[in-house]
Structure formats: C-alpha cells, structure tokens
Design brief:
- It is a single-pass membrane protein.
- It is found in: Mitochondrion inner membrane.
- Keywords: Membrane, Mitochondrion, Mitochondrion inner membrane, Transmembrane, Transmembrane helix.
- Component of the MICOS complex, a large protein complex of the mitochondrial inner membrane that plays crucial roles in the maintenance of crista junctions, inner membrane architecture, and formation of contact sites to the outer membrane.
- Belongs to the MICOS complex subunit Mic10 family.
- About 70% of the residues lie in helices and about 0% in strands.
- The relative contact order is 0.12.
- The two termini are about 35 Å apart.
- The protein has a domain of about 40 residues.
- By secondary structure, it is an all-alpha fold.
Amino acid sequence: MSKPTSSENIVNEKYDRCLADLLVKAGVGFGVGVVASVILFRRRTWPVALSTGFGMGAAYADCDRLFNPARIPGTRIITQAEEESK
C-alpha cells in the first residue's frame, strides 16, 4: 500500500507546478515578443515586455485556479447541509 501524501507535499507540488508554468509561459511570451519586435516593430522593447507580461499573467491565473478552485467562474460550493436538504 502506498503511504498517504501529506498536505505539505501537496502544497509543494502545487508550487512547483506554478513555478514551472510561470517559466514556460513567460519564456514563450518572451520569445513571441522578441520575434514580433524584430519582424514588426523595428526592434522596440515594448513588445517583449508586453508579451512576457501576458505570459506571466496567464501563469498567475492558472496558479490562482490551482490553489483556489472555488474561484472558477460558474462553480458553486455545495455545503453538506444544502445537500442533505435536497
């Protein structure tokens, strides 16, 4: 039988997933910004900063949903009293 996972390990796994997601999405945003900057915007810096910020914002939103699943739009938490009254 497998040993039960402690809550500390669960939180650590969530933080690791959030950090990996941040690095990937910010890196993709950075790459898209560099390409857009070189091809479209005559080597300006704002496309790089903007797209990196979009990637970081998307990673933050995913991490927020990972730690707070009740904040997902359209979901409702049903308490035990509500379920028993049905």
